C-alpha cells in the first residue's frame, strides 16, 4: 500500500467539513498505533488514553465497541496485505460547530480513522541507535493541556521543521525552563546506574502510550521509574537514553547534537521484554 | 441565510481531507471578517495580516489576486441577500501532508472560505456595553506563536467553555504572570486620563485586525497608543475599556466579573471615527 485511506464517522467519504471543530480550532485528540495481523497493537491502552484525553478537554469519548465497529467497517475495504502491517491513526474531535469558540451544548464527536503504510525504517536505527538535535523551538508551560495528545501541534511542526541535517532522526524538545521534555515524535527514558527516569509531563509534552507501556512494565518488575524534571546535563550524563513511540517502538539514542552518548543494548532489551519488535519484524 | 457554506481550494466540495495539516495539527492560520454589500470589509488589512501570519509559521500565503479569484467564484453561488451582510472566514493551511510533523518539502497551501450568517447581537451591547468574566484558563507563554491567529485554539475553546452565566458576553484571558492579554474572541483597549493602552501580545494572544485598525487610526491622529503589559488592577482602574473584533466591531466593557467599570461613550466614538458601525447597521 502506498496510499493513505480514511474513514470519517463510519463512512468512506472525501473529507471533514471545514466547520468541524478539529479543523477550525484543533479541538480534538488523536493516537497513532500499529496495525499488525489485523489487530490494533495495544488497543486497550490506546483506548484508555483516548478516554482520558477526551475527558481532559471535556469531551466524551465514544465507546470502544462503537469505535471498533467503525474500524471493522473501515478495514473491510482494506487490501488484505495492508492488514498485516500498517499504521492507524484515530482522531476524535468535538464534532461540528457553529462559528465561535463556544463548544456546542450537544456535541457528537467526529471519529476519523486514517490508514497509512508502515514506514520503512533503516535497520541501523535498531542496531546503532539514533541521533537527536536540540530544537530551538521550546514547549510552552500549559498544565491544562500537558500530556494530552491534542490536535494543537504547531510547536511540534515548527520544531520538526528545524531538522535539515539527515544525520538526525528526530528533535529534542525542551521547555522554557531548559528542562528536557520529549522528542518531537516520542518520549524519552534515561538510565543512570540502576535508576530509570522519564521527564515529568505536567507542564507540557505528550504522554505517549509506549511511555505508559514501559512505565507499566517496570511496575510489574517491582522497579520504580522516577518521573521528574530532567535537565539536558543529566541527559548527556546518562548511562543510556532511549526514545520511544508506538510506531517505531524503542530506539537507543546514540547522539545528541554533536555529542555521542553512552550506549548499551537497553533499547534492544526493552523491545524484547515488551515484545515490541523492530518494525521490519512487526 | 441560516446555513453555513464553504469552498475548499476553489471548489464547492464536501470537505477537507483528514490528512490536511490544518486538521491533523492545526497547521494553518485564519481570519474572520464582515462581508458588506458584496465587499470584504478591511480586506487589505486582513490580507496583510494573513501574509504576516503565514510567514511567521514558515508558510507562503497565496497572492491576494488568487484568493480573490477563489472568493469571487465562491460568491457567485451565494444567494444575493447574503452578499449584503454575512461573515466570511478565510482559513489557509500548509496543505496536504504525509504522516508526521515534518512539513512537506513542497506545499500547496489549502484555501478555505466559510460564509456564515451575520450574528444578530442584542442592541444593548452597543448602547450599554458588555460584561466579561475572568477565565480560569490561562494563556501559555509562547513567543514563537504569539500574535498569530493560528488554528491551535484549544486555550480559547476551554476558556470560552467556562462561560455558563448568560450575563457575560465574553471571557477575559490572562497569562500565567497575571497579565491581561485579551478577550477570548477580541482585543482590549484601555483609557486612563488621556492615555490609551493595549496589552502587548509578544508572549501570547492574537493580534486582531480591528486592534490594528484602531492602532493605525490613533497614529493618524498623532496620538501614541502604549502597547505594554497590563495587569488586572490597571484594567479595573481604567477610565474606559473597550473590546474589539472584526465582527461585532467595538464595544464598551461595562463590567468585569461582579465589578462595574467606569464607562463613557468611547466605544461609540471609535465606531463613528473608524466608520465601523453596529452590526445591525452594517
UniProtKB/TrEMBL annotation, chains A, B:
EC numbers, comma separated: 4.1.3.38
Cofactor(s) essential for the protein: pyridoxal 5'-phosphate
UniProt keyword Signal, yes or no: no
Keywords (A to Z) from UniProt: Folate biosynthesis, Lyase, Pyridoxal phosphate
Membrane-traversing stretches: none
Catalytic activity: 4-amino-4-deoxychorismate = 4-aminobenzoate + pyruvate + H(+)
Subunit structure: Homodimer.
Annotated metabolic or biological route of this protein: Cofactor biosynthesis; tetrahydrofolate biosynthesis; 4-aminobenzoate from chorismate: step 2/2
Name of the protein described by the UniProt record: aminodeoxychorismate lyase
Family: Belongs to the class-IV pyridoxal-phosphate-dependent aminotransferase family.
Gene name linked to the record: pabC
GO molecular function annotations of the record: 4-amino-4-deoxychorismate lyase activity
Pfam families linked to this entry: Aminotran_4
Top EC category: lyase
InterPro entries with a match to the protein in the record: Aminodeoxychorismate_lyase_IV, Aminotrans_IV, Aminotransferase-like, BCAT-like_C, BCAT-like_N, Class-IV_PLP-Dep_Aminotrnsfr
